[in-house]
Amino acid sequence: MTKYTIKPLSPDKVKTYSLKTRNSKVTTDSFAKVLTGDNTIPTFIDSLPDILAGSDFKRFIRKLKRAKKDMKPIIFAMGAHVIKVGLNPLIIDLMESGWISALALNGAGIIHDFEIAYIGQTSEDVAVQIKDGRFGMAKETGEFLNAAVSEGSRENLGLGEAVGKMISSSGFPHKNHSLLSCAYELDIPVTVHVALGTDIIHCHPEVDGAAVGKTSINDFFLFCSLIERLDGGGVYVNIGSAVVLPEVFLKAVSLVRNRGKALQNFSTAVFDFNLHYRPQENVVRRPLVNKKDGFYFIGHHEIMIPLLAASLKSTSV
Prior knowledge:
The protein has 317 residues and is an alpha/beta fold. It has helices at residues 41-47, 52-69, 81-84, 88-96, 107-119, 126-129, 139-154, 159-168, 179-186, 209-228, 244-258, 277-285, 301-313, and strands at residues 74-78, 102-106, 190-193, 235-239, 267-272, 294-298. Helix 8 (159-168) crosses helix 9 (179-186), helix 10 (209-228) crosses helix 11 (244-258) and helix 11 (244-258) runs parallel beside helix 12 (277-285).
């Protein structure tokens, strides 16, 4: 016998209705389709369920294809992890085929891109190297990149253009895999957004803080000009940057609107393997007038970005 004086409610008087009259969010029409082993990418994309991320992904691909058709900008902002997991060939192919009109990187992006171009490998074992202070101390990385930044400052270039120019004009054996070199040769703007002290080349004796600041602020204002062009159908994609690039994007949006541009009717998306506060708020939510134009896709870059690239180059969706 319960000692409580409050009695449980009885369901006897609950009012019911026929299930057939109810509006439901999921129907069999939106279910996934079974594939055979030899299906093409368009068939695979079409087979995704029209539910949640499956529906969002197909809708996002359509927005990208519309932007390309209408000659609107498609800007990829990427953390360095995208480079470290071997995706440069896919990003380069998307640039060459007209799917990317500008790139934005953080400071680590130029480091890994340079090392790939210079020696065909990158990404040191930090846990091992930091024990005796060897982490980040590769001689060539510091010398070449700091020299490029200093030269770019003297020429009043942005940091991305300065490094792209250096790699493009070099004899590095693997420069065909460099994002910055290929973008420079394709006349695709690359902006690099640096936080002082966060990158290994800031530890080297050749570093010139004034040059880093000047070239990176040049890139910020170039980035703002690129963001302004998103108005009316452009697409901004943040891949794997959890802090720096989402913050830069938000400030650029504010600056553009402060100057009188409405900056409406564009889309944004985040691709990352975790849900992060700043990408969600600063890329997907806050900047958009129509909240349905923001997307967040969670998954490993080495799977999701090849899927994105293949979907863009397919004839379906």
